[in-house]
Write a structure and sequence with these properties.
The complex is a heterodimer. Chain A is mainly α. Chain A contains 16 helices and two strands. In chain A, strands 1-2 form a two-stranded antiparallel ribbon. The N terminus of chain A is likely disordered. The mean pLDDT of chain B is 86. In chain B, a hairpin with a 6-residue loop joins strand 5 and strand 6. Chain B is an alpha+beta fold. The chains are: A mainly alpha, B alpha+beta. At the A-B interface, helix 7 and helix 8 of A face loops of B.
């Protein structure tokens, strides 16, 4: 992250120069946003990182304004949300932006993660970058879960009950942890209050980790579809204007989809049960988490033992932390790993199947399908990836990004 | 550190540790202990508050509950199931071979008077409220309760018989004040 003032031309504007001499924000921005060397061959899957950043900003902005009209009290919360939608000026818009923003956030981040899985973006020297990403995902999940509790509908209440009860699976301390999480003997007003407090806090923690994620990213720069390192100036282009424009175009497409949901199907991802006020004395016929938790919910329910189910669910995320060391292949990109590529698509299909299983009651065939796909999920990371790296014969790698991209048609330096 | 300390009063003791190292270690250890002990009030503040704890008992008059009927009362924000069991239900509960149960408990150890079963109405799996209190509810295969969330089934003694729940329905602390009234908690 060090600046190169010797190479950079001085700023034209006197005020900018004066400020920059004392507080080098302009040098920093020029270095990290403008001249930041980026591989010339990034495809559209590389849009999703910056997209996720934009969604985070949208979520924080809409959330702050929602909080101005929301009341975190078990007796008042549900009606305060209804009031936001019906009476507050553009409150419906703010709420639908925020509600659907959560789903869009997960869509973007899941694509971002699978991009990293396919192109081996987690491999050296980007292990910490990847692990910080997993931390971001965990923070997102915690934030989304607590946010879903705030409207205090039936799904809010029972979702909170089921998820907090997961901790009771731990021997000895389990019950104490749950009571501590609730601040009482059931999910109640103290629980709602603290969830609101944390739901407001965690996005800012998330911002800090995103900052670290970016520092780690800029240390070695983006990975690229070929998965090989930049070898010289012929391999990279400055971030601005090439990728600022590409990111802006991707953002426009993304916003079209997002706005379509907000304005035409605002409750597409929601559960109708959450428009019934929370009732601690009656459980809805089926409790189903938000779609982005369904694969993990399926893993939780696949194991017949409560503690084992909870451990498997947390393990499904924990395994991602050690992924850089489980994948033993020195080749990053799936483009050059024909066998890995098959397993990648199987894993993606497996994740989708787990999501479908999570949406169904654990009866009949769903139990077996859930167990098999849970086993496959773990086998992929713990068995297949370590062995595959040793057995697979990767395709020959191009000598440089420029060679592969320009097919020898342009100026090239001999290796 | 040892190489750079030429200032008077920071005397060397050979090439190893100095008095300064000792002071740094003890000071940071004490600081860490101090910081950790200040964390406790914050953690503890998230546990149930005094007013929440104060609302911890409920009195129930059992006179209007006929044989075969169930009522749900609220205790500490949780539903408590009170069932006036029929002779058939009592017999079923007593005839079970305890050794075959997932959470082995005799019926006698779960009731104070055989006709009254009093349990916390929260599924021990993930905290849903089982069905079976209303006559129209499904009661599962064992004349008890059926949890709609993940299919756990409890018998007429509130013991887990089928499904993912690990434990029997919990027993709240209660006492009979008279033959027909109880105090829970």
């Amino acid at each position: 992250m060090t600046a190169h003032p010797s190479q950079a031309p001085a700023f034209q504007n006197k005020l900018v120069r004066w400020v920059d001499h004392r507080l080098p924000v302009f040098t920093f921005l020029r270095h990290e946003l403008e001249e930041y060397p980026t591989p010339r061959n990034l495809n559209y899957f590389w849009n999703f990182g910056s997209l996720a950043g934009v969604v985070l900003v949208i979520m924080i902005a809409s959330g702050i304004f929602l909080a101005m009209n929301y009341t975190p009290n078990a007796d008042l919360a549900f009606n305060s949300v209804e009031r936001i939608v019906r009476d507050v000026n553009y409150g419906w818009l703010l709420r639908y932006i925020h509600m659907n923003g959560a789903s869009m956030f997960f869509i973007v981040v899941y694509i971002h993660i699978f991009r990293g899985l396919y192109y081996g973006s987690y491999k050296a020297p980007r292990e910490l970058l990847w692990m910080l990403g997993v931390v971001i995902m965990l923070l997102m999940m915690a934030t989304a879960f607590m946010g879903y509790v705030l409207p205090w509908g039936q799904m809010s209440f029972w979702g909170a009950t089921v998820i907090t009860n997961l901790f009771s699976a731990f021997p000895v301390v389990g019950e104490h942890i749950v009571t501590w999480l609730w601040g009482g003997f059931a999910v109640d007003n103290p629980t709602l209050n603290r969830f609101f407090s944390l739901h407001y806090l965690l996005p800012f923690v998330l911002c800090a980790v995103v900052g670290l994620h970016l520092v780690a990213l800029h240390q070695h720069g983006s990975n690229n579809p070929l998965g090989i390192d930049k070898k010289g100036p012929q391999d990279w282009i400055p971030f601005h204007p090439y990728y600022t424009v590409k990111d802006a175009f991707g953002l426009a497409v993304f916003l079209l989809i997002y706005c379509f949901l907000i304005f035409f199907h605002p409750n597409f991802f929601g559960s109708p049960d959450n428009y019934i006020p929370a009732n601690p004395m009656a459980t809805p016929a089926s409790i189903e988490p938000e779609w982005y938790f369904l694969p993990f919910y399926a893993i939780l329910r696949s194991l017949p033992d409560k503690l084992a189910g909870v451990l498997a669910m947390f393990g499904a995320i924990a395994v991602l932390f050690v992924l850089p060391w489980l994948d033993t292949s020195p080749v990053r990109s799936g483009k050059f790993r024909p066998v890995f590529r098959i397993f990648f698509w199987l894993l993606l299909a497996d994740a989708v199947i787990l999501g479908v299983v999570g949406a169904h009651k654990p009866e009949g065939w769903w139990v077996l399908i859930g167990r098999l796909s849970t086993a496959w999920y773990f086998a992929h990371f713990i068995i297949i990836l370590p062995i595959l790296g040793k057995l697979e014969r990767p395709l020959p790698l191009p000598t440089s990004i420029a060679q592969a991209v320009l097919k020898g048609g342009a100026r090239m330096e001999k290796p | 550190m040892a190489e750079t300390t030429n200032i008077p009063g920071t005397g060397h003791h050979g090439d190893g540790e100095t008095r300064r190292d000792f002071l740094v270690l003890t000071a940071s250890a004490l600081g860490a202990v101090g910081a950790a002990s200040v964390v406790w009030p914050f953690i503890s503040s998230m546990n149930p508050a005094a007013d929440t704890l104060a609302m911890s008992s409920t009195e129930v008059d059992l006179t209007p509950v006929a044989v075969g009927q169930s009522i749900t009362v609220v205790w500490q924000g949780k539903p408590v199931f009170i069932r006036h069991r029929t002779d058939k239900e009592i017999k079923e509960a007593e005839d079970v071979n305890v050794a075959e149960l997932r959470d082995p408990q005799t019926d006698a150890s779960r009731v104070k008077k055989t006709e009254w079963l009093i349990v916390v109405g929260i599924c021990t799996h993930l905290g849903c409220i089982p069905l079976g209190q209303k006559p129209s509810d499904p009661r599962g295969e064992y004349d008890g309760w059926f949890c709609p969330c993940h299919g756990s089934q409890y018998d007429s003694s509130g013991r887990i018989r089928k499904g993912p729940a690990p434990l029997n329905l919990a027993l709240p602390p209660y006492a009979f004040k008279t033959d027909t009234s109880i105090k829970i908690g």
